[in-house]
Amino acid sequence: MRIRTIAVGIGTLVLSLAMTLAPGPSAAARPGAAARPGAAARPGAAAGPGAAAGPGAAATPAVSGAETAWRWPLDPPWRVVQPFHAPATRYSAGHRGVDLAAQPGAIIYAPADGVVSFAGTVVDRPVITLDHGGALLSSMEPVKTELPVGTAVRAGERIGTVGRGGHCDDTCIHLGVRLRGDYVSPLLYLGGVPRAVLLPVRPTGRR
Questions:
Q1: Measured between alpha carbons, how far is 81 from 98 in angstroms, rounded to an integer?
Q2: What total of structural domains would you count in the chain?
Q3: Is the whole-model pTM more than 0.70?
């Protein structure tokens, strides 16, 4: 059990380095890149709903484009079996993404337009990473794909199938999102965080 825990930790570190060092293709190479929702970080953009929630929120970057939802990477119904838990620091413990219920062989779709920046095996599970531009990356595992690095994909396009391995083995896929090197909740982009609504307060003692 301890060896498996160490292996998973090493795999997470290797994947983080791969996502950080992967060269981002130019926007001109991506069809319709300028029209991608949330692809580019707009200066002064307000943080997405719920961005301030959770431990380590002070270190979470403002999320631009979160007001336009991405496509879920699986066919419905969608069920989050493990939510995002922001780490206190970049190297602290936490759950750097969401786990979505899925069975091996299920089709995986691109959540947004992008380019494959990594596709391969990390420790014991297949992983695919998409570069959406604007220092925004999404990563899914265990996901098997035949797409080579550099392939441009559209939102909703089939990019692979659910594989086996990792902590999600046979039960789910793990979806992580990084903005400028920091993990943020994928639900900010999938539209899973409800906006706060202020309701009028009824004065007390009056009819």
A1: 8
A2: 1
A3: no
H-run or E-run covering 12: helix 2-21
CATH number of the domain encompassing residue 109: 2.70.70.10
35, with CB counted inside 10 A (0-12, 13-18, 19+), is exposed
> What digits encode the pLDDT tens for the residues 75-102?
999 999 999 998 888 788 888 999 999 9
Q: Which residues contact 17 (CB under 8 A, 6 or more apart)?
A: none
pLDDT score at 142: 97
In a domain, 33, yes or no: no
Q: What is the dihedral of CA 53, 59, 65, 69, to 10 degrees?
A: -40
Tens-digit pLDDT profile for residues 41-74: 333 333 333 333 343 333 444 444 444 579 999 9
Structural domain harbouring 78: 2-27+61-190
d(CA 114, CA 155): 8
Q: Pick the residue with more confidence: 26 or 170?
A: 170
Residue 151 identity (one-letter amino acid): T
In a domain, 195, yes or no: no
DSSP run (H or E) holding 15: helix 2-21
139, part of any domain: yes
Q: How many residues does the chain have?
A: 207
